[in-house]
Amino acid sequence: MSASVTRRTVLAGGAGAAIGLALPGSAAQAGGHHSTSVRFTLDARTLDGGEQVTSVTLDTGRLGPIDPAGLTPGTFSVHAKATSPIPIAPGDLIFSEYDLDRTVTAARLDRRGNIVLELSHAEGQPGGGTLGYILSRGRNVQLDLVYTITQNTPLVRRSGSPLTITRFVQGRLSNPEVDAFSHHVSGSGLKYRLYSPERSPHHGRRPLILWLHGGGEGASLPDDYYDNETTLRANRGALGFATPEAQRIFSGAYVVAPQSTSYWMEDGPRFAPLIREIVQDLVRRKRVDPDRIYVAGCSNGGYMSLEMTVAYPGLFAASVPICGVVEPLGGDGPPLITDAELAGIRTPTWLVTSRDDDTVPPETNTIHAHDLIPGSLMSLYDRVVWDGYQFPGHWSWIYVARNDPSLNGTHIWQWMARRRR
Question: Is 362 in contact with 353 (CB distance < 8 Å)?
Answer without folding.
Answer: yes
